[in-house]
Amino acid sequence: MGALIASDGSANHPYLQRLARNEEPLRDLSDAAHHICLLHGRHPGVIDHALGHARLGIERDWLEAAADAFVIERAYLVRIVAAAGPLPSTPGHAETEAATAAQRHAVDMLAQSDRAGCATGASIAMAMDWAVIRETLDAAAERLGIAAPPSQLPLAEETVTVVDTLVREGSLERAMLFGAQQLFAQHRGLWDLLEARASARDKQ
Questions:
Q1: Cα-only R_g, the chain
Q2: What dihedral do alpha carbons 157, 73, 172, 111 form, nearest 10°?
Q3: Cβ of 43: how many Cβ atoms within 10 Å?
Q4: Measured CA angle at 16 (ends 104, 203), to 5 deg
Q5: How far apart are alpha carbons 41 and 34 in whole angstroms?
Q6: For 50-95, how does the pLDDT look when each residue is reduced to its tens digit (9 = 90+)?
Q7: Among 142, 137, 114, CA closest to 50
Q8: How far is CA 121 from CA 21, 75, 85, in A?
């Protein structure tokens, strides 16, 4: 899982890196916040769905803590989107809507998978990826004059302990890795889409 995060995680995406460093125009940060909200701003979300499939023990404990923490993240995200105002005018918006709807459907399917470990793997990827996503949201919040609440998501060290415990079951490990891979893929697709939208606006 650590190798997967290092290779496929959002921290490697150049456009998201620029957003997180607050190097892009506010309209691009606002666009990112809107689309992150479309993907992860609803309840129930990835972690909430996964909690419904979790077994007792360390898996359920971690998911409960992460779900409680994401209530704060979701409220913060919605505040940013409300302050940012409407989506910036961008050529090809209809195509963007279709792509975002497909991503949302794919994420929902992952989170509601009956395959033991798949939804938990997606949730762990979500929590690990959220660190750099949060940096992007914080950059937007700073521009918009919104105070960022401290993140309550489980610490990376706690998450690693959970992963180490769960992957001792071979079949669970494969399902968790699949869920994580697919979640990371949807996030990379979103950052590619946002970068393309920014480029299209620059050419207007």
A1: 17
A2: -170
A3: 10
A4: 90
A5: 9
A6: 998 887 688 999 999 999 999 999 999 999 999 999 999 999 988 9
A7: 114
A8: 28, 24, 34
- Please report the sign of the dihedral spanned by the C-alpha atoms of residue 76, residue 35, residue 67, residue 63: negative
Per-residue pLDDT tens digits for 159-201:
988 888 888 877 788 999 999 999 999 999 999 999 999 999 9
Q: Where are the domains of the chain?
A: 1-203
Handedness of CA 75, 72, 154, 11 (dihedral sign): positive
**pTM of the entire structure?**
0.94
Amino acid at 155: L
CATH fold of 1-203? Heme Oxygenase; Chain A (1.20.910)
Query: In residues, how long is the chain?
Result: 204
Encoded tokens for 185:
């893929």
Provide the token pair at 37: 């909200």
